[in-house]
Amino acid sequence: MWDNMKKITILLMILICILTLTGCWNLREISEMGVAVAIGVDLVEDELMELTVQVLIPRRLAQEGYEGNAVVTYSTTGRTTFELFRKITTISSRKIYIGHIQLVVLGEEFAKKGILDTIDFFERDHEFRRQAHILLTKGVSAKAILETGSVIELIPAEHITKAIDNAIHTGTTKKITLIELFKDLNSKGNQVLLPTVFVRHEGIPDVAKDLRIAGTGVFDKDMLIGFLDEFETRGYLWVAGDLHGGILVIPSPKDPLEFISLELMKVNSKMSVSLVDNKPILQIKIKADSNLGEQQKSIDLTTPEMIKYVEEESKKLIKEEILKALYKGQRVHSLDFFGFGEIVAKEHPKYWKEVEDDWDTVFSNAEINIDIESNIRRTGQILQPSTPE
Amino acid sequence: MLRRIMGLLQYFKYKPKRHIHSDTSVLQYGDAIPTTLKELISKLKLIMNNDGDLVIRSFKLSAINCSEGILVYINGLTDKKSIELNVLKPLMAEAQENKMKYLKNNRKVIDIIINEIIQSLNCSTENSLDKIIEKLLGGSTILFLQDEKTAIIIDAKKWDTRGVNEPDTESVVRGPREGFNEDLITNITLIRRKVKSAKLKFEETKLGRFSKTRIVICYFEGIADKYIINELKGRLERIEIDAILESGYIEQFIEDHPLSPFPTVSNSEKPDVVVGKLLEGRVAVLCDGTPFVLLVPRVFIENLQVSEDYYTRPLYATILRILRLLALFITTTLPALYVAVQTFHHEIIPFRLFIAITAVREGIPMPTFFEALMMVIIFELIKEAGLRMPKPVGQAVSIVGAIVLGQATVEAGIASPLMVIVIALTAITGFIVPPLDGTVFFLRICLLIAGSILGFYGIIFALVVIFIHMCNMKSFGVEFLSPLAPISDGLKDTYIRPPLWSLLFDNTKFRALEDHNPTEE
Q1: What CA–CA distance (Å, rounded) separates B144 from B154?
Q2: Percentage of the residues of chain A whose pLDDT score is greater than 90
Q3: Which of A369, B92, B214, B385 can pair with B288 through a Cys bridge, CB separation 3.0 to 4.6 Å?
Q4: Which ranges of B344-432 would DSSP assign to H, the alpha helix?
Q5: Is the Cβ–Cβ distance between A15 and A49 less than 8 Å?
Q6: pLDDT score of B278
Q7: Where exactly are the transmembrane stretches of this chain (chain B) (predicted)?
Q8: Would you call A58 and B358 a contact, using CB atoms and an 8 Å cutoff?
Q9: How far apart are CA B145 and CA B64, in angstroms?
Q10: Distances (CA, A) of B291 to B100, B252, B267, B268, B280
Q11: What is the CA radius of gyration of chain B?
């Protein structure tokens, strides 16, 4: 009898523990939540934040032959992100679910004041999706971006995330997810760069095709201080080894107004820092493999001399792009957004201790050594270009 | 409340008291055979309640001394032609000169009849009336003689049996089609025909106070573990029941864990399966009146193996075994996983799928759990209806099930199309492991409830509880999860079906554990 009593007591204790000590769990039906696919943060008057949330309309997702977008946007203003999220539930009929957010858009004005104001919530919240893309606006508010519809996609946020995914193959912008941003923010040195979106023409964009995603925003700590255009961005990507493809356009050997396009296939880059007389020399080593993709003149480019010419021209182009980016870093912003600081800290920890506080100045005055190797691997489907007689 | 639970536990632990039991406590007619035939006939009629199927045939024993005699048998259980030709005819034939001399040698009439006159194969003598009645009811023909205290029992039984047909339960693409039928003797011969070895032993007992059902324990001497045989015999002896109508009765008395959802006694309708398992060291229990032969011990992995695995080539058989394991997992956990994902773990669904789910879930009035529970139960109802109905009606049932409940619930917005897919997949995979049919349904519901309360955590918790339970189980001294846990020799032929030549017919597939000596080879 007592044996049984003991068993039952233990069983009850286990059951109570199971039901109470499970951490956070929450039963929620999908049909009762408002699924947020994108959020935008802006700065409005009186230093207030404005949060815009793009929420799915499930009814429209299921509707056959529906031609508009299956989303609705809600905006509200307040002081903190969490407060705003709660406020939005009073506007929408359903509780906002942030576990499937695909895109986070940060307004330019907001970013200038420092993005940490909202990043902490993203980091702290257990539900927030860390794989969300991050985008910075340029000359337009995040709200306007989120309110822009898409013709092709049912969900406009998806249009933008797909555009970012495609843009990294041209090397004109950098793709960064939330978790990578957290990593960059916590690294030594200032390596935060966010892709930017801007509107092609003046005014409020109609549909997502009016938007352009190119270039990057440069951050000092968590504050936006400037932008890199698409060539400067590619210069940065060459150095950082983050380039996944792109087209190199070089002048034709006979006529400088006709061009040759090279398709970048594979890039290896290595950053290192060597110390000479207690002064850092920044070493950049790049090895690029590309294919001949197009030429506008009928020249036989398959001869060794021509290949040599193309390789040399591409080297020049790469070097030019890198120098542009370095100029922005060393002269314009005096900011090491390439991440040389982290390399110094790893390779020369003693030296890093000395210059840690003043690294950006040391970086600005550092000597640079660029070593580029460019190879043409293939020349396409044809040997000789078509030559009309 | 606590007291009530304890009471329930007491009930679970209830063990019936053993009574001292013998056949005579039920049927008692007195042992001696009445000397005069007249008395005997009236006594027989009294015992048999003057039943219409009792036949008493009087005759004159012309072959020897012209004394009176009677043949008694139950109509319909006896091979009448054989009795007429081999018993009645020689007994009533005119005495020949050479036969008369037997009497002069002072020999007993009974001996003369058995040795010289009756031409039946199976003859014996019996003094006890109780035993005689038992034999009579079993289908033997009894020969009584005037002034004799001993009766002759002629074993010439014949009754209608179903032919050896292909069983419905274990159909195969490749393999023998024959199945057991309701006749014990036929079943024994079916096993005998497969293996011509003197090591194959059949031991007969009788069970059931009234039914006196013949039970045969069958095993391979030298392969089957003595511990298992003795344990089985002991458990069979302890059975106290009025009648055994099916081997399922025996199963429920001898199984180790009567309250567990997992069965620990397997059964088969096919001789090749039974012989295969006998050769692996299992012990079979054949029961008269049913084609289902019990086999002990039963381990978990057996549920994923079928006889056809060994008839087809190893590669495909192995793939099928792994698929069966997958099917078992799907059929038990899929509804639970679906509900857990839908209500707790939205973030693990890929975004595109999540959008699709939000679209189809929109407008469903019920919580996902009830939607799933409803569909699981509806499917089980359809299945049960289809089983019990005559075949033509069964088709109508499946049409109602498929169209009305499948399509109409979706169109009416009661259930989402995804849920129908989940339930359909659950149902189909459930058919892949037929030996665990009932178990699977029970586990499915348990996991569904666990998953709907605590999400993945609940499912994992329930699975852990199930595994602990399985690890605790034993079937006739053999660990239920062996050879997987504890790992033992037979691991070779579990998930993977190795080529037969590599198995080398080793008999180490499992062994009973502890407190007994290993098999004497």
Answers
A1: 11
A2: 34
A3: B214
A4: 351-361, 368-388, 391-399, 408-411, 417-430
A5: no
A6: 92
A7: 322-344, 364-382, 418-436, 442-468
A8: yes
A9: 12
A10: 50, 17, 10, 8, 21
A11: 30
Q: What is the mean pLDDT of residues A212-228?
A: 89
Q: Which residue has the higher pLDDT, A2 or B366?
A: B366
Q: Which amino acid is at B331?
A: T
> What are B337-382's pLDDT values in tens digits?
999 998 888 888 998 889 888 888 888 888 899 999 999 998 888 8
Shortest Cα distance, chain B CAs vs residue A137, angstroms: 24
B449 near A CB under 8 A? no
Please report residues of A whose CB lies closer than 8 A to that of B411: none
Q: Can you list the residues of chain B whose pLDDT is less than 70? A: 1-31, 95-106, 504-521
Give the Cα separation of A129 and A181 in Å (integer): 13
Asked, for residue B306, whether it belongs to a domain, the answer is no
HSE-CB for A211 with a 13 A CA cutoff: 31
Residues A37-49, mean pLDDT to the nearest whole number: 91
Residue B112 confidence (pLDDT): 80
Quick check: is B441 in a domain? yes
Residue B443 domain flag: yes
Q: Residue A370 corresponds to which amino acid?
A: I
- List the domain range (segments joined by +) for residue B394: 320-472
Token pair 């999860």 in the structure block, residue: B481
In the DSSP assignment, the letter for residue B241 is -
Q: Show Cβ contacts of residue A230 under 8 Å, excluding neighbours closer than 6 positions.
A: A172, A173, A214, A215
Distance (Å, whole) CA B173 – CA B312: 10
* Partner-chain contact A100 B342, CB within 8 Å: no
**How near does any CA of chain A get to the CA of B339, in Å?**
9
pLDDT digits (tens, 9 = 90+) for A267-283: 999 999 998 888 899 99
Q: Which of A19, A22, A30, A129 to mutate to test the interface with B (most CBs of B within 10 A)?
A: A30
Q: Are residues B287 and B401 in the same domain?
A: no
Structure confidence by residue, pLDDT tens digits, A345-361: 888 999 989 888 888 88
Closest residue in chain A to residue B339, using alpha carbons only: A29
Number of structural domains (chain B) is 3
Q: CA angle, corner B399, sides to B398 and B402, nearest 5?
A: 80
- Kindly state the average pLDDT of the residues A30-39: 89
Please state the ipTM of this predicted complex: 0.81
The single-letter DSSP state of residue B292 is P
Residue B272: predicted pLDDT: 93
- Say what the pLDDT of residue B445 is: 94
For residue B100, count other CB atoms closer than 10 A to its CB.
12
Residues B89 and B130 grouped into a single domain: yes
**Residue B381 identity (one-letter amino acid):** L
Cβ contact A366:A279 at 8 Å = yes
Cα–Cα distance measured from residue A345 to residue B249, given in angstroms and rounded to the nearest whole number: 79
Q: For residue B110, what is the enclosing H or E element?
A: helix B109-112
Compute the distance between CA of residue A224 and CA of residue A113 in angstroms, rounded to an integer.
7
How far apart, in whole angstroms, are the C-alpha atoms of residue A345 and residue A347?
6
Chain B environment of A129 (Cβ under 8 Å): 347
Question: What is the average pLDDT across A359-384?
Answer: 88
Task: Transcribe A158-193 into DSSP letters.
Answer: HHHHHHHHHHTTTTSS---BHHHHHHHHTSSS---E
